[in-house]
Amino acid sequence: MDEIRLDSLTKRFGELIAVDQANLTVGQGEVMCLLGPSGCGKTTMLRMIAGLEWATSGDIWIGGKRVNNLPARDRNVAMTFQFYALYPSLPVEDNLAYPLFAENLSRAEIAKRVARVSEALDLKSILKRRPHQLSEGEKQRVAVGRSIVRDPTCFLFDEPLSRLDIQLRQTMRTQIKEVLTKLDKPTVIVTHDQIEALTMADRIAVMQLGKVEQIATPHELFAKPANLFVASFIGTPQMNLMPASVIDVGEPEPDASVSARFSLLGESISARVNQGVAALGSGAKVTLGIRPRSFEFANGSGTDSLHASVDLIEPMGAETLAHLIEQGVDMRCVVPSATHISVGDRVSVRCKTGQLHVFDNAGKLVG
Amino acid sequence: MSERREVRAIGQAGWGRTLGAGIVSLIYFFPVYFILMTAFKTRPDALAMPIKFFFSPTLANFYSVFWRADILGGGTTNSGFGLYFFNSLFISGTAVTLALIIGTAAAYAFSRFPLRGNDTYLFIILTTRMLPPIIAIIPIFVLFRVFGLSGSYTGIIALYTAFNLPFSIWMVKSFFDDLDRDIEDAGRMDGSSEWNVFRKICLPQIYGGLAATFVFAVILTWNEFLFALMLTGTETRTVPVAIARTIGGQVGVDWGLMSAIETLFIIPVVVVTFLLQNQLLRGVTFGTIRK
Amino acid sequence: MATSVSSATALAQQDQPARNATGFVGWIMSPERRGPLLVTPAIITLFVVNIFPLLWSFGLSFYEYKANRIAPPVFAGLANYRYVLTDPEIWIRFGNTAMIVVGSVALQLVVGFLLALLFAQEFPLRRYLLMLILSPMMLSLSAVGVFFKLFYDPTLGFISRFISLFTPDTFVILSTPARATIAVVVADAWMWSPFVMLLVLAGLVSVPKYLYEAAEIDRAGRWRRFRTITFPYIRSLLLLALLFRTIETFKIFDIVYLLTEGGPGSSTETVSVYVYRLAFQFFRTSQASALGYIMVFAVVVLTSLYLYAIQTRQSEA
Q1: Which residues of B touch A74 (CB under 8 A)?
Q2: Any idea where the domains of chain C sit in the sequence?
Q3: Number of CB pairs, chain A paired with chain B, less than 8 A apart
Q4: Which chain A residue's Cα is nearest to C229?
Q5: What is the CATH number of domain C88-316?
Q6: Å from B105 to nearest chain C CA?
Q7: Which of A216, B111, B244, C182 is 20 to 30 A removed from A271 (C-alpha atoms)?
Q8: What pTM was estimated for this model as a whole?
């Protein structure tokens, strides 16, 4: 039972609530990402797991043990810091060996482990160098190496890739994921970059202003965002969120879906949505969420089409981002670049089946 | 629960530390405290052994700093210390101001228009400051006699200006070095003359640093003893020399008086050090270290 | 007054049209000459007041000259230097100075370092206690000399009284050379240890917090933490403190002169005091110059080391 468990974890700095009643579980071998914008509390949560901050209330369990009152050194966790925190006066090999000195191992054993790690992360050529002589990528590998050279209860990463350039990030993402899979320990990664989270995590906890908004697999987050915040945070380009109201809702079908009609941008749209929408009743104000790639061109008529004008076209290589505008509302729409559209065209688009998200007044997903 | 306290020690200590540091500080501060305390003591109290910590304070000593009882014939005479304090202020102030003006110009040049022998010049300037004053005393003493500068304001001010130049140059150069050059370049590209770049862009940013330099230099000059001893006359004497002269000659030392003089003398230094705490490190290392 | 690129632009627009001065002023103010121009007044002042007299007395050191006689200087070549370097009296003074320098600087480094450790973290009232520790540096040297003379007085001074609680006889500083030297060393070290503290403190405070956090995660012990993280940061500052204080203590004059006058006998007479005596008491002016220049040489060597240490420090930072 190697898991990490957070129970109603709260952290207060005076008046400020940095983490608010967070509940989280990370299983053995699972990679959990804490994702959110700056100031959402993800780093504070990580530091509480590490033992660098004390919890105001709530419990932290690591490996079945309640660790609230244990200082970091007694929790046997490994952490990779955002700024690497490599010891500047020591060469790479001593940096890697540093955590092992607390374990009373023989010199030979230490050397063996260091060699194994430097092999795995391709550090052999820089073992004798000092941190200030290394490139960002090399520093990052050494920082990761220092974490995996030991046998901790869990791995913690604080924005591991934020200081790398795009190319390097892609390489390191894969490398880290490989290493983590092999090690099979609970891992928590903090990041503000959703691509990182979506590619590296088994599950993601999306946070905002101290609250955990949703914990789900990357796919689920994408397909079924629990509220407006998650919906707009996940996915690039950003999901289109448009105010609308319910006209009427039909009878539920066997597959738990209903047919509903919405008033959106002066037009009436019909769509197949989840039966939760039925609870809203006619006239209810909702927000409709449609991802840019959920649009497809329709042929003008049809109860499910929207009409709009093309305002701006941004080529993105294999795809094109088209900005459509109707009644002052801007809609982002991604189409294959082969599509022929130009600025000023009047087009009609519709949302692909099953990809319409309905959010109620409070911003929660209903359909 | 005892484990919790250990981690907190990274960066923050509590009242236990205050107690320990407080004891050490008070012991270290004691000689200074003695001087301050004695300034308020009457003559017999001042020299009482063991030390009298509780006594009725008097301001008589401070009064006597400026006016002395005339031994023959009653009444009080001006002890001259008013003049000496004025001299100290005037001489230090003028010398440092001059040093800052000349030094800032030179510092700007060293920083923005480095010459080929820049490092050599700076080294020589630093060495000038580091030399034993003794070695300069002899020729300067003679030179002053020859040019009739002994005991005049001009001579000692010129000397102190030269003394403060190395310090000013190093300090102000360190301030110029820290400035963001992009703003100056923006000004230049938009057609500002060099003089305006200096006057309206660079200079305003270092006003704080100039003030700090001024104050540190005044403190150093304020306390200077050797050259003041040799080169000031009765009219231009500074306070440190007057203190030294006070102890010799009269019957026994009036420690209360001495303490009062030193207390008055130290007040500006204390006030200024407290206000300039942030610049303190840069000041005492001549601008070579900045946090 | 916020300085920014936009205000710089606004400022420049006031300047239009840019002047292209011609004539003498233009020649003076042209870019190549600007640097030298600004530096010149400083160089002139330094030269006239400092360097010229130094050169003059350097020249004088090669002549035989006594300031209290009317006889003109007589060329003597290296005679003064030869005399000075072979005179056992001189070597005694160098010895005295060396003892004071070593004693005081060592004490300053130790005490300053310990004080810095004490003040390394933030705690209540730290700012005010720090001022108390810095107060010795604010006293004028003459005051320190004069008052410590009182403190060491066998009957009236609290230091002597305090020491006699532990020793059989009363502590009179002029009774033995050792005691006089210790008295000077203690007074000087007391005054300047706060300086060392400031430097070491700057180093301690500049260590990034996350390094200590990483060490905590890595379960490093206290000694290990100090050795691998803290000490490298303060090493260069300690060196700077060492060199700077050595240069300053080497020149020591005021405290010695006022406290012991070089006594007992000449056991605490430092080189500076001796030069002073040679020049103004015995009027052996040219010998004083020669000795002075040997001091200058030592100082120049030390200053180069100091400058080297600064540059190393700045490249590290």
Answers
A1: 3
A2: 88-316
A3: 14
A4: A87
A5: 1.10.3720.10
A6: 5
A7: A216
A8: 0.78
